[in-house]
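Hi C.,

You asked whether I'd gotten around to modeling the 140-residue construct. I have! Everything is below, sequence then structure, no commentary in between.
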Amino acid sequence: MDDKRSREKDVLIEKIKKNIKKTIADFSKSHNEIDVNKETTISSAFQYLDYTLKQKILTLYSENRKVADAIVSKWVLPQVNETNIASFVKLRNNKTHSGTVEWGDSAKLYAPLLAIVYAGFFKYIGLPDEIIICTLLQIF
């Protein structure tokens, strides 16, 4: 994977995933009556252990802070911070799991968070922050 796109993995998360895989393999050897790859989700249940969505968004925000803050400043939106991101993730989870959504102030975070997505793409293709900010201020 290209260095621009890869992020450092959490060592402890990777370690627990490795230990879980080993435990599943050991279990499978002693219990051949269960095919963990066909009849259960045992083999895949833990493969997605990772940072929370909130932490992933915070990471993207920290990588693209200048861009998001420029959008926030232009439209006088609330600052992007851990509390606001947590509220946005809760809103997303409510919609995903219960089908209901009450945007409230979280709606005001949509533009800066979408700008972060665009900024990540523009950074990937090699544009400098100044060009990214200028471009996104025209879009948003």
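If it helps when you're writing up: The mean pLDDT is 87.

Thanks,
B.
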